[in-house]
Amino acid sequence: MEFTIKGEFYSGLNVYKNNELLLYSKLKHRWFRGDLISIFDKDDNLLVEVSVSGMKNSEYLIRYQNKDLLETILSLSRNEIMFSGNIRFKLSQAWLALINPYAKVYYEEKEIAKINLERFMTFRQFSLHLKDENFIYINELLVYFLLNQTRDNTE
């Protein structure tokens, strides 16, 4: 299953499957209080809102979660997220734009997705290839990717 994620630098990202918008994120820069990332579904329902401070070792503060539309986030860090129900994703992220433009996503210690980074001058684009067509935590996976990459403009 293939997803396309794209957006401009210092802005939000949009997630598409077959050119249909699934999720999108918005980024609001807030000096001295941490940037605010908001993630919405295609019907403009707010799923989660997170305040992020720091650069490489970002600290995440969950400000809002829509528990009716998304599993509850129990913990969140740069390389890992855990949702209720013991749903845990890890992101191995060692990409360098021209040398190694790939990252991998793990669920239960198994690689479930590969992400290809395609950066342009003022535009970012990723392709996320999910190996299992029947994977049931797609929204949670995509939300994690958006939380991880919406603010990540310089790496």
Sequence-ordered SSE layout with sheet pairings:
Elements: E1 2-8, E2 14-17, E3 20-28, E4 35-41, E5 46-53, E6 59-65, E7 73-76, E8 80-83, E9 87-93, E10 102-107, E11 110-119, E12 123-130, H1 138-149
Written account of the structure:
By secondary structure, the protein is mostly beta strands. Helices cover 8% and strands 52% of the residues. The protein contains one helix and twelve strands. Strands 6-5-4-3-2-1-12-11-10-9-8-7 form a twelve-stranded antiparallel beta sheet, with helices on one face. β3 (20-28) and β4 form a beta hairpin. The longest helix is centred in the C-terminal third of the chain and has 12 residues, at 138-149. The model has no long low-confidence stretch (mean pLDDT 87).
Give descriptors for this structure:
mainly beta, 1 helix, about 50% strand
Q: Quick recap of the structure?
A:
The protein has 155 residues and is mostly beta strands. It contains one helix and twelve strands; from the N terminus they run ββββββββββββα. It has one helix at 138-149, and strands at residues 2-8, 14-17, 20-28, 35-41, 46-53, 59-65, 73-76, 80-83, 87-93, 102-107, 110-119, 123-130.
Read across the widest sheet, the strand sequence of neighbours is 6-5-4-3-2-1-12-11-10-9-8-7
> What is the average of the pLDDT values?
87
In terms of quaternary structure, the protein is single chain
Strand content: over 45%
Percent in helix: under 10%
The low-confidence runs, each spanning 5 or more residues with pLDDT under 50, are none
